[in-house]
Structures are given as C-alpha cells and as structure tokens.
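Table S2 (continued). Query chain:
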Amino acid sequence: MVPFLRRLRTPIFTFCFLVMIASNTRGAEKPLKVFILAGQSNMQGHASISTFDSLADDPKTAGLLKEMRGPDGKPKVCEKVWISSVGCLGDAYTDLKEKKGKLTAGFGAPDNKIGPEFTFGLTMEKLLGEPVLIIKTSWGGRSLHTDFRPPSAGPYAWSEYELTKYKKRGDDMEKTKAEKVKATGVYYREMIGHVQKVLKDVNRVVPDYDEKQGYELAGFVWFQGFNDYVAGDTYDKQMKPGGYDLYGELLGHLIRDVRKDLKSPKLPVVIGVMGIGGEKEDKKAPQMHFRQAQAAVASLPEFKGNVKVVPTARFWDDDLDEMHERMDKLNEKLDREFKKDPNLKKAAKEEARKKAIDDQFKPEEWKRLKGGVSNGGYHYLGAAKILAPIGKAFAEALVDTPPVK
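Corresponding output:
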C-alpha cells in the first residue's frame, strides 16, 4: 500500500495545486468595466450603416472598417461588450424606450445607424480583452444650460439680454419662467436614473454577470454642445472671447455632480469637443470660443489627470463637406425652378435633377457623396467615416486615463 500511495502522492499534489490556482483565478477576476456615454444627437448617432463602405477608400480608416465587420461582411457583434441605451431611438425626442443586448451596429438614433458607441465598444473589447458594459443616455436637441443642467449649478439664470428681449416681444414672463423651471435638469435626472437602474440589476443587460465579481465605473464620455452653441439668448456674447465661459462652468458642475450621484469621486471623464466644420473653425468665432470653453474644463486643478478632451474636428472630412454643400445649393436652385412651373410632372423633375447632378459632379464624386453622407453637417454629415474614428478616440482616451486612487 505504501509504495502505491507514494506513486499517487505527486499526481494528487499536482491536482490539488491546480484546483487551488483555478480557485484563486476565479477569485481574482476583474470587476465588470462600466462606461457611461451621454449627450445629445451626436451621441445618439446619425451615421447610417449604409455609409460604412466609405471608410475603405481612405488608408486612415480602412483598417477600422475591417474591425467593424464580421467574416460575413455584416456589422460585427461583440462577444464581450453589452449595451443598454435610452433616449431618442425613434423620431420622438421623449422616447425613453430602452434597447439592450450585445453591442453591434444599430444603437444609433434609429436602429439603422450608429453613434460613437459602436467603435467605442469595439476598441474597448480589443484593448481590454475583458467584459464591458456600456450605458448610453442621449437625447437629441437638448442643452446643458437647461435640459441637462446639473443640480449644483442652481436654477437657470436669466440674463438682462433675455429678459429685455422677451419683454419687448410681449411674452408672458411668468409662464416662460415657469416652463423653464419645469424643463431644468430633466435630462440630467433621466441620465442618472437610468444608470442607477442598470447598475441595480446588471444581469438584466449582461446575462452571465457575476455579482461576486462586481463592477467598476471606469469612465464617462460627454458628447454634447450644439444646442448650447446656437443658444444666442443664453450666450449673448458668443462672438467675443469668453462668450461661452458659462458652458464651461456648467460642464464643471456636471462632472462633479455625476461623480457625486454615482458615488465615484474620481470617475475618469472624456469630453468630446465639438468638431462640426473641421479644424478651420478653430480660428473662427463663435465655434472657436465654444470649443475653448469645452476644452478649458480639463485644465482645472481638481480635474487634472482624470478629465481629458478629445477634439473631434480632426476627424472631419472637408471633401465630403464641400460636396454636401454643393448638393444643398443645387437642390435649392432646382426647387426654385420647379416652383415656377407647378404643372411640371414628377418624371420631368427627376430627369432635370439627374442632368443637373451629372453636370455638377464627377461620377467618382457622386459615388462618394451618396455612399458617405446620410445626414446634415450638424450631425457630422451622418458619415461613419467621421463618427467611427471619434468613438475609437473616446475609448483610447479613457484607456489612457486610469482612475485616480
């Protein structure tokens, strides 16, 4: 018996050792990484899936396109990334319907589009190699000065410019102020409420989530700004340096309040600086001043090291923009001409439009325009070639911004 036991001792020891290692490995599993993506229409995403092919024509984006598609040529479905998205998933801004599941294309404004979330998740899956949960809250046409106004910013502050303008117009100021009070902070509360709802029951979104493993709030991305940028009443000095300083103050409050309400005091933050129109707008008011106000927040001493900015203007496509503007002008001209002859038949209009397009665009230009643009300039042209690299950049910025202990 003794020799036999001696022969068994080494295999038994090895087996026990392996069991111990496996047990320790399970115990050492990392918490589920949770990223929050928030903002308005460009965080929702208006880049149609039909514009994916346009990435193939540029060496800078061709590699990213390969990551966006599976072996079957269809948009890739992530194996380690899940998403819960609320906001405007249809035409109504108040549509709070949740869409959830494994991340793939189709979590944009309507379900045939993408926002930054798609390539954000693809990049996180590639860089981290571990399970990720994205919680996306985004509503189109919403401002920081009112709709997303954070609690610590206090009530909306009316400027003398606004009050004087409304009084001259004869507005009912009591009614106007009451409506403003009712609208203030609604979407901030919706954002925080949905994040808390998902975190309270993670298994509802991530089926195999292990509560013992837990989760880690690993980053918050803010991509918003257009409705503040065009709010001439609130930011009445927008053409002057510092004209959007109020936006920067509000954004600072937002970061502090999100961290407080989610009990994550050093939550890494990325601010997507508005890039509509490209880098040429960096030197033109008012967008120059707006971009400066967004970027300045990261330089505050309290945010040093865990708040970063990603300028999105560098991803703009000037050629696509020029062709899109050319097409807009052509459509305006044709519409004016068609109105002169109300009896003109549909077939004749289509033929006239086709001839005008052939005259204005080379075949390769028209192909690129039709395949690359699916929305207006304020929505980054609805171009995956622009929006996909933005999502990737957001993820890379967060991976390079570890939580501060």
